Amino acid sequence: MRRALVFSLFALSHLLSAAEKPDVLVILADQWSPRFTGWDNKEVRTPHMDRISTEGMIFDACYVTSPVCMPARVSLLTGLYPHNAGHGLWGNAAGYYPKPEDAPMFLDIQRAGLTTAQIGKTHWTAGPAWHEQFKNSGAFFKALGLDHVADIPGPPDSMKGRDPYSQHLQKLGLLQAVADDLHGRYVSGEFEPRASVVKSEDYHDVFTTGLAVDFIRAQPKEKPLCLVVSLHSPHPPLDAPGDYATMFDPEKITLPANVPEKYLREGRALNHEKTKRMLANYLGKLALVDDCVAKLVEAMKARGTWDSALIAISADHGEMMGAHGYLTKGRFYEESVRVPLVLRWPGQIKTGRSKAPAQMMDIYPTIVEAVGGELTPGRFAKSLLPIARGEKERIRPIAVSEIGDKVPLRMMARDDRFKYWADEEREYLFDLENDPLEQHELSAAPEHRETLHAMREKLLTHLRSTQVNLSAGYKPKVQRLREAKAKKNGK
Questions:
Q1: How far apart (Å, rounded) are the C-alpha atoms in residues 52 and 59?
Q2: Tens digit of pLDDT for each residue in 399-421?
Q3: Cβ of 355: how many Cβ atoms within 10 Å?
Q4: How many CB atoms lie within 10 A of CB 201?
Q5: Are 226 and 115 in contact (CB under 8 A)?
Q6: How crowded is residue 432: how many other Cβ atoms within 10 Å of its Cβ?
Q7: Residue whose C-alpha is closest to residue 105's, from 120, 122, 92
Q8: What CA–CA distances, in Å, run from 441 to 187, 256, 438?
Q9: Considering only CA atoms, which of 137, 64, 63, 68 is closest in space to residue 97?
Q10: Which end of the chain is more exposed for a tag (fewer CB within 10 A), N or C?
Q11: Is 226 helix (H, G, I), strand (E, B) or coil?
Q12: Are 102 and 87 a contacting pair, CB within 8 Å?
């Protein structure tokens, strides 16, 4: 009797807490390597995000469904993998846009009673591809379930920009200078570290954050909100502004052991000295992101909902930054395919760290569950709340990532310990528990032959079990006729 009463009280308290829908704030950085988080790397300066991480749960094995911008972001919108019908994007592609019927993230949250908004970089489309179905971008965003959008694709490299940031620069008389500077960087190499031509207060991420703060301040407190703030940094070009450009001394920076002393990228010979200069600017941009987070936190505190809000901090993919001799993203090494993920929800989730395989797109169903909504059927993203609340150790056996622009497409699987992937030429296997920097490839080792086969089988099982069933719910004609007759006869 006592046990039943305790259970009933627990269920009632859980129900009451779910009835109070929290504000939701999602902060997405762009091209943020998990090697450079303040909670793991003391050379990184992100005190505000570090504080949030101590008040929430860090997911140490969070992977994007593709280590490239558009497919990773589309997975967040759809809750689907690139191989699924309704997604289908294995890399950045011109003329693509997510169909609203396949991308229900904001609709699910909106139906739960929240005001929905995204401010900053969307990057779900490549050009105005939506014009075939919608008369303007406003109609497209409305169909996605968004009440408010300020789409800022990033720093403009031409005078044709019509987004809010380009208009801001135009008013300041700075658009030409910024466009010329960025165009030159993209042509000569976006990894050349050099301070921005604008002051910190006019930098694109600061401008984006200002719009987000204004949005938070303008929202009625009686209605909860879900705001996604998508910043461009620390994505190259390496143009940290003002003091952020000189915040880090390259000579005092420590490179991971998997960065070779000399390597050739983008037609340039790079060494540790040059890589440290790049990383110093990159860390400066990350420090700016952290200061933007501080402004968002203050806005939520002023709104009075910070202590009850669900906060998610992550990124669309990582950055190699010299690891294994590579720059940028698009690879299955940890620096590129794994991303930071922190969830904070005071009184609702535990603090600490989880090593369970997770996908960045899991943020979507996590929000839907937290706000008491209903998840659109057919999603393969899963809520992380069972892990964050301490109810389960894991929600999936493996995390998966996919990329490719030609056959055969490349696919990766990571379980608790091992990472496996196959590209156009061969298979790879790494023991992340004993080799976190992936310096020892094991696919040819006889003692790991069974592990290689097991990981290959896990990936195959995943593919077999994550297919969109377009015939789900279909009833044969005979069954439909019989049911109609039974209904007519009142049976």
A1: 13
A2: 999 998 778 889 999 999 999 99
A3: 15
A4: 10
A5: yes
A6: 18
A7: 122
A8: 35, 17, 7
A9: 137
A10: N
A11: strand
A12: yes
Spatial distance between the Cα atoms of 41 and 186, rounded to a whole number of angstroms: 30
Coil vs helix vs strand at 117: strand
Q: Is the peptide bond before 82 cis (omega within 30 degrees of 0)?
A: no
By DSSP bridging, strand 62-63 and strand 24-30 are unpaired
Helix axes 272-303, 47-54, angle to 10 degrees: 60
Beta bridge partner(s), residue 314: 28
Neighbour count for residue 204 (Cβ, 10 Å): 28
Instruction: Classify residue 71 by its DSSP letter.
Output: H
Residue count (the chain)? 491
Count Cβ atoms below 10 Å from residue 45 Cβ, excluding itself. Answer: 18
Q: Which residue has the tokens 């909106």?
A: 110
**The pTM is what?**
0.92
Domains of the chain and CATH, by start: 19-400 (3.40.720.10)
According to DSSP, the residues that pair with 419 across neighbouring strands are 414, 430
Q: Is 174 in contact with 201 (CB distance < 8 Å)?
A: no
Is the link from the previous residue into 408 a cis peptide, with omega within 30 of 0? yes
- Beta pairing partners, 30: 234
Q: Which amino acid is at 120?
A: G
Beta-sheet strands, E only, within 161-256: 225-234
Q: Which of 128-137, 181-190, 371-380, 435-444 has the weakest average pLDDT?
A: 128-137
Helix (H) or strand (E) holding 220: none
Strands 358-359 and 399-403: unpaired
Residue 469 has pLDDT above 90, yes or no: no
CA dihedral 160, 163, 164, 170 (to 10 degrees): 0
Please list, in sequence order, all residues whose beta carbon lies within 8 angstroms of the beta carbon of residue 16, skipping any fewer than 6 positions away.
Answer: none
Rounded distance between C-alpha atoms, residue 435 and residue 440, angstroms? 7
Which residue bears the tokens 């990228």? 265
